[in-house]
Structure formats: structure tokens, C-alpha cells
Amino acid sequence: MLRYSLFLAAALSATPLVVQEALAREAADAVAPEAATESVDVFAGVSEASRAALEAKGAGTPTEAEDWMIAAANPLAVEAGARVLREGGSAADAMVAVQAVLGLVEPQSSGLGGGAFLVWYDAESGELTTLDGRETAPLAADPRQFQDEAGEPLSFFDAVVGGLSVGTPGTPKLMEEAHRRWGRANWPGLFDEAIKLAEDGFTVSPRLAELVAGDSERLQRFPDTAGYFFPEGAAIAAGDRLTNPDYAETLRLIAEGGSRAFYTGAIAEEIVATVRGAEGNPGRLSTADLALYQVKERPAVCAAYRAHEVCGMGPPSSGALTVGQILGMLDSYDLATLGPDSAEAWRLIGDASRLAFADRGRYMADTDFVPVPVAGLVAPDYLASRAELLAGDDALPEVAPGAPEWDHAMRLADDESIEFPSTSHISIVDADGNALSMTTTIENGFGSRLMAAGFLLNNELTDFSFRSHSDGVPIANRIEPGKRPRSSMAPTIVMSEGTPSLVIGSPGGSRIIGYVAQAIIAHIDWAMDVQQAVAMPHLVNRFGAYDLEEGSSAAELEAPLSELGYEVNVRGLNSGLHAIALGETLQGGADPRREGIALGE
Ligand code: DON
User: Which positions bind L-glutamate (predicted)?
Assistant: First the structure.
């Protein structure tokens, strides 16, 4: 069986990728949290239960519980959610508390200045609902805003750092909408823990400290951001106690006034002034964009796999469609017999993934702006025909988008956008059996590097294709006013005989899709428990080159996969999978590559 070995900071440094820009993007997140945990006991303040959960993760065993479970990226955030559940709150209530604390203790990944997608299973009605809280392009956006005067794409960080990349945040309204639909706790109380931590201070984690140190130049470009992460000129260090009074004040206003206090008034004005005043790279966000922001309910996208339905977030995310395509193509292949050590299994998974990514690049974008053949892309007949392409013995020499059935036609060119590090995934099951899967982000590590009212602003607009056209043919994921950038986030709930059996998701840019598909295969086909499934070494193929996780036994497949014809890169693969399996008991798993835990009772 593939096993996980030592995690080394050096092992996670970026190695060459197909696309040059991706190198720079990954560097911001390519740090192993475990690198520094040995010297600083940053979790000294967490409860005994959280300590036990950290130990369980370290030992590779799932957390077991009867009533409820939370798996998320930081013990302090998980504890805030656990308190809500203990007091009788729902999974939606707990999410609000978890997100409020994550925005403080893991500010590089998600927060009020970002966006999120949420999948909800309602135990009473048996229904799945998906909510789109994705950031939105300002009304003043222009399809060529990430191009130079010659129409060539800007370099990634020239576009990211500053105001131009900032979309209208969606997370505050999504928190409120989830609470309005499914919450029963008192809204203001859900912010108590985060306000207290912001005022009294929290302990800076190794991961946060390493990421700050690794991004020092960009983080010091804007005074407010520099002042927070580099107080008196020196980077915050692991073990430091950090307060954020501005964040506490913002949370207080939202606790008292709801999301309206964020989207209008002083906070909205501060966001707009920060974006428009960003020196060297001003953006176009207006108070009207904020005031108009809406969370959108979208139809869940489900794909059949074995005896299960794998359900998640449809466009503007490509998550559920691409995960669903990969699994749908693999459905007719016996991965269980091949097993996780078999190069043949990874040939099938890798090429199914490449085929799915070819469709993703061609067709997937915000359906409010571009026709997308959503049903056609996961139709069993279509996937069966695509699966026939996998019947050979070697890596496919090339892959191209297929021709799914359209309800109406549109000719589109392949996209050129690339996405990368930060992001967080929250999985929660409450005592009533409601399940919540939410992936939340500010896009790049530390987003646009702009800070307003105590939180970082996203750079989500760089998830659009920088090119608007290719040879005169429009690209589906081009920027347009009011449009939402295509995402890879794949918050997922696997349904088995009408009830949830697995709640899962991950950060990781477009590799999210591979991480989530792999963990589902590991759990369903290879009978791994959730902790094994999230910890297992990664092998990811999106565009042809096979990425194998450095420092793990996945690297042992380098020679066999090369022999099958793949270009192979051994590199750090920094997922952050958080999963809950629902059976006779609840079992939680937290990714050993990040600082989170699964906690339950
Ligand atoms: O929406 C997306 O797909 C990206 N903005 C997510 C970025 C991400 O996962 C970075 N991960 N480490």
C-alpha cells in the first residue's frame, strides 16, 4: 500500500510546471506546516479533545463520534464550531462560527473578503441544496483588464497584487444566507469566539508564519497589510500572540447588523477605497457592486459512481462536473481489483482526468453568462463514450475536448486560466444528520494582499481567463461585468441510497479536482477509512504531466508511469482535505499536510 513518509519543507518547494505562471502562484503556498510544529507548541491553548484529535491525525486514525463532527483547517476554528453544536446549533450555525475564526487564524486562505461554495444536505427533507457565494466581477470590469496594450496576458502577480483582481466578496452573505435557511442559533452569538480571539489575541501558527515570511515583499507593498503581518517591521513568528482589533470591530458590526453592515456603510466604503486606492494597481470595485451582491442557489450536479451519487457544486464551479466526469469515466473499470499501487489504475485515473480537464477548459464557466452543456457533460452515454478512449495500454498521446450534448450551441475556444494556493475546506455533520460541505477562499495565499477592516481582500478575478479570445473565438471563462470566475472548488457530498455517506472537499487550485476524486476512489474502491483516504499520497494529472507527491511512496510510481508515456514531476502536493464518513458512527479525517483536525462527540 502507498504510504506517507516524512514531510519536508524543501520537498514542497515549487518545481517546474507546464505553465510558467503557475510556478509563481504555487510558491506562495508551498510550505509544509509540519516543518515548524516540532519547535513551537502553538496549539498549547486548545482543548484536550482537540489535542486528542491532533494525535489521532498524527497516528493516521480517524476521529470517531456518535452525534456530530467537524473537520476543518484549524483547531481554534473547529472548537468554535464544536461549541455551537454542543449548545444545540445546526451545521449551518457551526459553519458561521468556524468561518469567523478561520478568517482570523488562517487569514491567508479564506475570510470575509473572499467567496465560497456550500453544499447542504437537509436531514428532514432529504434534499440537497447548493449555494454560490462566489466573488463577482465589478460592473466596471472589462474582458481585457488582465492584458497589456498589445492584448497579451499580464504576468500572474502583476494582475494579482493590488485592486484589479478584487471581486465583490460573497462569504459574508453566504454565511447569513445559510444561517437564514438552516440556522437556529442566535446570529450575534456565533461571532463571540472570533471576536474574543481577535481582541485577546491568538497564537500564530507555523503555517501562517512560514507563509508570511515567504511572501514578505508582496505583503509589505501596502501599508495596512504590512502593519498587520510585519508589526514594527518584523514578520510575525510562530508562537506570537496576535490581536486584530479591526477584525473584532468588523465582526461586531456584522453580528449586530447582519451582512448589510458589510455590503453597505463604513465597511463597504473602506473596501472600495482600499481597492480603488491601491497604489500602482487600482481596481474597479464600487459601492454599487457591494450593495448589489447576491448569493445564488444553483442546481446540485450529481454523477453516478458505483452504487453512489457524487454531488456537488455546479457552474460557476467546474468542481462537481469535472470530479463527476472523472468518476463517471472510471465507473466501468475495476479499480478495486487493480488497487492503489497499480500503474494501470493510475493510467486510467490520470487519463480520465485529462479528458475531463479538456472539457473543463473548453466548456465550463458561469452559466449566467455562457451556455454550458451541464447535463451533457455528465450524461452516462457521453461519459461511456469518453471512457472508451481509455481502453488502450499506454498514456493517451493527446486529449481533446469531447462533444457533449448541448441544449443550445456555442463555439468556444480553450481557456488559459490557471488557479492556485490558499483556500480552506469545512465539513460538518450535526446531531440531526444535516451535512454541510463548504470550500472557502480568497484565491491566492493572502489574496490581493490588500487589507481592509481587518481582513484580506480576494484576488478571485484572476480565476478568469486572462485572454478573452483565441483566434477570434471567445473563451467561455473570459471576464465580463457581473460574471463569476470559474472555480475548481469541489465541496462534495456522496449520497448512498438517498442519504449522505461522505462529506469532503479540499483546497489546491485546479488540483482540488484530483484530490477529491482520488479520496473518493480511495474510500469507495480501496476501502480506506477517511483518515487514510485524505492522507494517502497524491498522484494528479490535469493537462498531461503526472504530478507525484514528493516525500511519499507515490514517487515510486515515477518509473512505471514514465514507461507508460507520461511526463512525470515529483513535487509537493499541498491538499487540505477534510472529510466525514457517515455510517454506524461518524468518522472524521483531517489532511496531515495542513494544521486542521476532525473533532466530534
Ligand atoms: O476557486 C478556485 O478554484 C481557486 N480560486 C481556489 C484556490 C485554491 O484552492 C488555492 N489552494 N490551495
Answer: 134, 463, 487-488, 509
Domain CATH code at residue 162: 3.60.20.40
Nearest CA to ligand 1 atom 10: 421
Q: If pLDDT is split at 50, 70 and 90, which confidence band does 566 have?
A: very high
Give yes or no for a contact between 550 and 570, defined as CB atoms under 8 angstroms apart. Answer: yes
For the chain, percent of residues with pLDDT exceeding 90: 87
Q: State yes or no: 486 annotated in a binding site.
A: no
In-domain check, residue 78: yes
The residue to which cell 486606492 is assigned: 277
| Helices 91-105 and 171-182, packing angle to 10 deg | 160
- Protein residues whose CB sits closer than 6 Å to any atom of ligand 1: 29, 419-423, 441, 443, 463, 487-489, 507-509, 512
Give the Å distance between the CA of 109 and the centre of ligand 1.
Answer: 9
pLDDT band for position 472 (cuts 50, 70, 90): confident
Domain membership of residue 342 (yes or no) is: no
Does some domain include residue 561? yes
Kindly report the pTM of this predicted structure: 0.93
227 contacts: CB under 8 Å, gap ≥ 6: none
Q: Is 529 annotated as a binding residue?
A: no
344 within a domain of the structure (yes/no): no
Q: Would the annotation count 589 as a binding residue?
A: no
- The number of folded domains in the chain is 1
Residues 121-163: tens digit of each pLDDT: 999 999 999 999 999 999 999 999 999 999 999 999 999 999 9
423 tagged catalytic: yes
| Contact yes or no for 581/501 (Cβ under 8 A) | yes
The answer to whether the CB of 445 falls within 8 A of the CB of 422 is yes
∠ CA(214), CA(218), CA(219), 5° rounding?
A: 80
Closest-CA residue, ligand 1 atom 5, reads 443
Question: What confidence category does residue 412 fall into, taking pLDDT thresholds of 50, 70 and 90?
Answer: low
Catalytic residue among 130, 322, 423, 462: 423
Residue 408 has pLDDT above 90, yes or no: no
